[in-house]
Design a protein that fits this description.
The chain is about 35% helix and about 0% strand. It is mainly α. The chain has a domain of about 60 residues. The chain is globular.
Length: about 80
């Protein structure tokens, strides 16, 4: 997400819709996730900074091993996952 306008749209969409969990498939770089979380947590872009509602506390996590392709989803069960609110 090198384009600030795209980052702003992603973050505002997350905030305006009240998402508490966001899953992104086929991320090319962990830096992208870090940048999105940093913007959601600190709001440096104007439209994100102006958001008056709750922002939450955002963290990112990736699997160390590739999980495979979406069409193979049944081959990769999710285990030991918890969601805290």
């Amino acid at each position: 997400v090198c384009n600030p306008g795209v980052l702003e749209v992603i973050c505002r969409t997350v905030l305006e819709n009240g998402f508490s969990l966001l899953a992104i498939q086929e991320v090319g770089s962990k830096d992208v996730l870090e940048k999105i979380c940093c913007e959601l947590n600190h709001g440096n872009l104007r439209r994100v900074r102006e958001w008056g509602g709750p922002k939450g506390e955002w963290r990112w996590q990736v699997s160390e091993e590739p999980a495979g392709y979406m069409f193979q989803a049944d081959d990769f069960p999710v285990q030991n996952m918890t969601v805290n609110q």
